[in-house]
Queue: 2 jobs
Job 1
Amino acid sequence: MSAQPGTKLYEGKAKILYATEDPDILLAVYKDDATAFNAQKRGTIAGKGSINCLISRYLFEQLEAVGIPTHYLDCPEPAQMRVKALTIVPLEVIVRNRAAGSLCQQTGLPLGAVLDPPLVEFCYKNDDLGDPLLTEGRLLAMELATAEQVADITALARAINRELTAFFDRCNITLVDFKVEFGRDRDGRIILGDEISPDTCRLWDNAIADPDGRVLDKDRFRRDLGEVEAAYQRVLEVVTAAVQ
Ligand code: TMP
């Protein structure tokens, strides 16, 4: 069954959101477009839309099964996901199990250093400001969320990390870090939104020792490592096998 998209509500870098006939339900259409470094680098990853949609679906289903509320409803088409309408909290919530990316650049921690306990960090979701890293004090001063919501979001982020780390362990993949976004439903309940995919996670193949060869995520695009489509396809295959 193909959903008939209604009014386009929002076009982001990786997805377009449409209204549906039900005000509580939106249709997210995943795109093949890829951007990095706040859209200074642009490209296309063939098949990414449908791959990321299906990976996100499987991961949302895993999280729902252990009681973590997500916005996922169903997928009427390969690159389309019907989701619950949420009021998005304008935070990028990053969980890090190992040092990589901006953490290495900003702190000098060596690539791959184990972070125990895992770090939970907040960035302000604002492209004009370059998604800056926030302190909890700044976040509260900006009234982006209440202290209670920050506590809820942090606890959910840690629970998501525990579940996804265990899941990817079964795939022989290390979940290095990831970014998630949350929203509030009509009742004010905090719900996991957006997507969880190789666009938003760092994933390393445990069977490969080479630090570039093991990369199975968007760093292949960011850092021009090549074989981008193959890496996304590989993640879909192992995730699909693990949920069977
Ligand atoms: P970072 O090391 O560049 O801060 O990225 C941390 C994680 O967040 C990594 O898994 C990639 C993901 N991420 C996004 O999903 N969107 C973004 O805009 C950025 C900068 C990172």
Job 2
Amino acid sequence: MATEVKEVKRKEMKTKPVNGNGHGNGNGTYDANNIHVLKGLEAVRRRPAMYIGDTGQRGLHHMVYEVVDNSIDEAMAGFCDNIIVEINQDNSITVTDNGRGIPTEEHPDEKKSALEVVMTTLHAGGKFDHDSYKVSGGLHGVGVSVVNALSEWCWVEVCRDGDIYRQEYKRGEAVQPVKKVRTGKKTGTKTSFYPDPEIFSKIEFKFDIIASRMRELAFLNQNLSIDLIDHRSRKEVNFKYKGGLSSFIEYLNENNTVLFKKPIHFQKTRDDIEVEVAIQYNDGYSESVYSYVNNINTIEGGTHLTGFRTALTRTINNYVAKNNLLKKENITFIGEDSREGLTAVVSVKVRDPQFEGQTKTKLGNSEVKGVVESITNEYLGAYLEENPAVGKKIVEKLANAAAAREAARKAKELTRRKTALDSASLPGKLADCSMSEPELCEIYIVEGDSAGGSAKQGRDRRYQAILPLKGKILNVEKARIDKILSNTEVRTLITALGCGIKDEFDPAKIRYHKVIIMTDADIDGSHIRTLLLTFFFRYMSSLFDLGYIYIAQPPLYRIRYGKNESYAYSDDEKDKILKTLPNTGISIQRYKGLGEMNPEQLWRTTMDPETRTLLKVTLSDGAEADHLFSQLMGNEIGPRREFIEQNAQYVRNLDI
Ligand code: 0RA
């Protein structure tokens, strides 16, 4: 999930209009009069980002999801239980499903095969659309014709009624009419495409990115089998979960100590809204709640999540009152208490979802809140009554959380001192920059005072701030918020960033739009980096969505020859440089830490925007990142060791 961002200006992207005259030119077109189709495709190719978000890594992978979504629709309609996704040698993609097959008969209005209409008409929809849970707004559900328009080539084979039909396309235009190519017994649809290099900056699919979305889809669609095959590396995985959301919860809690073994899991349809929820608690302090609408992760939440949260707190409070469980303590839980150590997934299927918010991932339909709330009340209430042993454990956990909250409040009130969280006074260790526009400013969080010193001398003080951190920050996976806030390094960091934390977190207040983690290229450095990323993930996660979190890339080697020198950022690069040099008079220095570079070298190799490389850390999948962070930093030692062993060679390029 980490994507490399070279900070050099990208060449202006060439987008060639498709047959600008609106008529087929014989170059891949068999129907010269189809002005309307060509206009649609041209619009997509002119402004691809409007349809798939961007033309970088995210948009590229979105192409795959768009095709898979159509097969998922067929699965949700009950006609498909197997999807195969193949990444081919040449980075083309093939998606095969065993559904009914896209209809191929002549479309009554368009006078051509329905298959061709679906593949070449923007928002074809209507009769040949699935009447299931189509998504309006957002980037999903833009249709497979968009993928087609943005592909250098594409072909589809449909198996129906004993025959296999096929059509090929070039940049969205059909090359010839739909043809019967052979006979076939089964039914289904197979789509293959190669994204257009004129549109996308780089055509290289990441196995892990596709895998985590396929895993998620398999969790969300119980019993659906999804195979992912990478022909480049011969990797292969199958995702199929009998437990659905229960399996999802078990996966999320794989590295945590849970309070009870079997997740609480229920599913019910009311007023045409399908609600499915799974819940489990672990002995940690953070909240891991993921919500979905029509298989789309609603990272900004919305009415379904609000309904769930309200019901959770209320149902547990009712249970406590009804059974006289906390007579002495006289506590009423607030929402925050009921979410400590909570892992939950809330998935709804809604017919006409309205998406709002900055990233269009917040459900707006008001009718959904009450439905999720009442279903959760009923099922969770009944579950607690029937499972008093589990009920007792949950209530104990929440009572602890409430007591800690109360103690923290009292302590704060008693001291009443201005805390370091108050951004009025900046910490002394921070060497701030002189400019104050956040969009121009960056902060380097540097491991250790000595590297901090070099960074302070080497930086451009107009827009670069330096915050040296002493040693390791607290592992936030293992501590409650009050303890986290009593840690000096963490407080310094929060104050320097200026955006607050938890309830007071406001990304609009952040003082720098680039937060750059700069640590040594050794085990300690990678541990500190992971601690920092975990902290940002648990307490300021929207900074990732906003694209504010970066990792600096210091060089590994300095190579001197005669009066010249070069820096190598990887072993490969070092070998490449050495090959270009005669064998005499070369000296190679391997950097063990940032402290070995003088200020000028640090600036030139790692901090100068003209020459540096930064890794931008993005979370393409929150649940996947959650699993990874709990694996890296959680309670269970076994899985962590296993992870580090498996990934040791990738530490420099850890994909989060
Ligand atoms: C509409 C109607 C029918 C099938 C599909 C859509 C369909 C579309 C896709 C896209 C990928 N895989 C798909 N599988 C099926 C079937 C109508 C019928 O047979 O009665």
